[in-house]
Specification:
- This protein has about 280 residues and is of the alpha/beta class.
- It has a single domain, classed as Beta Barrel (Barwin-like endoglucanases).
- About 30% of the residues lie in helices and about 20% in strands.
- It is built from 7 helices and 10 strands.
- It has a 6-stranded mixed beta barrel with strand order 4-8-5-7-6-9.
- The longest helix is centred in the last third of the chain and has 22 residues.
- It starts with a strand and ends with a helix.
Length: about 280
């Protein structure tokens, strides 16, 4: 069983010796004086403990199977190391810097690093999309620790904890779930606003994603091949990309039903005068 230090402000026991050892190890690891190990790099499928509390990190396949499923967790938050003395500066289990002032990152002892989560506070009707980039909390049965900014946006910073509805939006790849020093994940939306329900948030995010994909497709650079394809489709006289000539338009001459030329009008007037 592997032991990992906790990065939450709510998970400190009374054993000062154990805490000092854990913090000293974290400091040495952060300074690059000791190599990374499973004690810091949260490995999917492994179990980690701190001060008697253990959690198992879900495997990548388990996380993929959980996409779209809603769970409810009692959630806390943690802050920058300047305000939270039990959060070692710069140390996360993913290698990405913790950003307490951004509502887009969180810690979890059960979700692999790189997992994208939709979190919704039913009490305030506020929602955010966060990416897990750290381990912890290891206090009681809590399974999620959001950043201070996320707690502010979701409306529970002053309470300290809240029962949030959590939905996995995207499972990480193996590379995303593996520790890498100075990592930087692709950005996620962070706070997304107020909604009547979690289902309404999901529907809105799906609509926005579809619109974004359509817009990107329309604005994508036009390649030489796509130009040739478009020209071949519009001009029937040009050969197609297969080398075969396209069909030529069939022009049909339509006989006029009414005489409209000046000569024909004069002819009618003379015929009428003779009669």
């Amino acid at each position: 069983m592997t032991t990992i230090i906790d990065r939450s402000q709510h998970c400190v026991g009374s054993n000062w010796t154990a805490r000092l050892v854990a913090l000293a190890g974290a400091f040495l690891f952060t300074m690059g004086l000791v190599p990374s190990s499973d004690a810091f790099a949260k490995t999917p499928g492994s179990t980690y403990c701190f001060h008697g509390t253990c959690h198992r990190v879900r495997s990548l396949s388990e996380t993929s199977a959980a996409v779209g499923r809603t769970e409810s967790f009692v959630t806390s938050f943690y802050d920058d190391c300047r305000r939270d003395r039990y959060n070692p500066c710069g140390l996360t289990s993913s290698g990405e810097a913790f950003r307490a002032d951004k509502p887009d990152n969180a810690a979890s002892p059960i979700y692999p690093d790189g997992t994208t989560l939709l979190v919704f506070n039913p009490a305030t009707k506020k929602a955010a999309v966060v990416r897990v980039n750290n381990a912890g909390p290891y206090w009681g049965n809590r399974k999620l620790d959001v950043s201070r900014s996320a707690a502010e946006k979701l409306g529970f910073r002053h309470k300290g904890v809240a029962k949030l509805q959590v939905k996995v939006l995207k499972a990480p790849s193996k590379a995303e779930a593996t520790y890498r020093r100075h990592r930087k994940y692709d950005p996620v939306p962070g706070y997304v606003g107020s909604f009547a329900s979690l289902d309404q948030v999901s529907s809105s995010l799906t609509s926005v994603a579809a619109l974004k994909a359509a817009t990107q497709a329309m604005l994508a650079p036009i390649s030489k091949q796509s130009k040739q394809t478009a020209i071949a489709a519009l001009d029937f006289n040009l050969p197609t990309l297969t080398g075969r000539a396209g069909p030529k338009p069939q022009l049909r001459e339509i006989a006029p039903t009414i005489d409209t030329t000046i000569a024909q009008k004069k002819k009618r007037i003379r015929a009428a005068a003779r009669s």
